[in-house]
Amino acid sequence: MSNVLRQPAELTYQMELDALKAEDTGPKPTNWSLSPQAVVTYLLGGQTPGGTEISSKYIGNRRLIETAVATLATDRALLLLGVPGTAKSWVSEHLAAAICGNSTQVIQCTAGTDENQIRYGWNYAQLLAKGPSKEALVPTPLYRAMESGTLCRLEELTRMGSDVQDTLITVLSEKMLPIPELNSAIYAEQGFNVIATANNRDKGVNELSSALKRRFNVVVLPLPDDMNEEISIVVRRVEEMGSSLALPVPANAKAEIEKVITIFRELRGGETLDGKVTLKTPTGNLSTAEAIAVMVGGLSQANWFNNGKLGPEDISSNLVGAIVKDPVQDKVVLEEYLETVLKKRRDFAPYYKSMNDVL
Ligand SMILES: Nc1ncnc2c1ncn2[C@@H]1O[C@H](COP(=O)(O)OP(=O)(O)O)[C@@H](O)[C@H]1O
Ligand SMILES: [Mg+2]
């Protein structure tokens, strides 16, 4: 086993991808490694025709994933939209791994991203020595994806300035990238496309211009609306992360996950699950991804400091940390929830106590 902390999806799930590829008889868009059907199977899980188990990466609506995959087979780019923690980056990585076998052509968009990080940069030593030439040009992930007919991932597209976003318009509509310094251009190979993710909750987002928006099909990834679905996402990911971090997952983990998800859903939804008590909601968004992080933190604490016995004491400090993002406002919200709801539930008594201890 390699000592790399985290490998890209195409290496972690190489066996599944190889099995799907070997048995894939469906028609493929040019330059795709798998047929669209097989890509969907890779994401949602199932079996190959020959009976190899494919684990499910995304738990949710099949239609959403089909739309996402179908979009990538057209000339329109894909924009995955949703609140933080709804698996946008995760789905983007797995789509790229399944479609072109390379999920690492990523540009993380920030307020400081400039055109050179999107189009191409220059190796200044070369530029000074030889003047502008192809050798002096430093390709970006987008450039390489165009050249090789593969996918480029743009993370948090709306974080970068609108003027920089708009450099994508020519790339997406004409599938070419002009290089005026060399009086040339590169033309995208078949198979090239873009998967962008964006957050519809963040403060300080730069809205996409309507010209750019028109080049994207938007797929909105929702928070799971069914509690059991959310529990199963967390159970599965906690098991996977536990094994990759060599943290044993004790038998009671599922019961604790149910408790954590109950607390998350009640605070997120602004009422108790039975609908009887209205609650104030905290400022953070309490996503599924945060529930996973709370549980993995709890497992680590239990493993290293509590002989592997996982209990509310191990989970509570992370739980409070996830809920109280604003130390003044959210603290009041949580105190009220503890006093009006959890205090009265016998099965939550250990949580009531240990959360009060850390609050
Ligand atoms: N519906 C889901 N199915 C599978 N995993 C999910 C789901 N929702 C959230 N997750 C998990 O949440 C984690 C974080 O997701 P991430 O892609 O970083 O969120 P985002 O980019 O939307 O902020 C991932 O590890 C993913 O496994
Ligand atoms: Mg993300």
TrEMBL record:
Gene3D superfamilies (alphabetical): P-loop containing nucleotide triphosphate hydrolases
Source organism, top-level taxon: Bacteria
- The residue ranges of the ATPase dynein-related AAA domain are 78-216
Query: SUPFAM superfamilies this protein is in?
Result: P-loop containing nucleoside triphosphate hydrolases
* Annotated InterPro entries: ATPase_dyneun-rel_AAA, CbbQ/NirQ/NorQ/GpvN, P-loop_NTPase
Which Pfam families does its entry note?
AAA_5
For this chain, one GO molecular function annotation is: ATP hydrolysis activity
Name-wise, this protein is ATPase
* UniProt source species: Oleiphilus messinensis
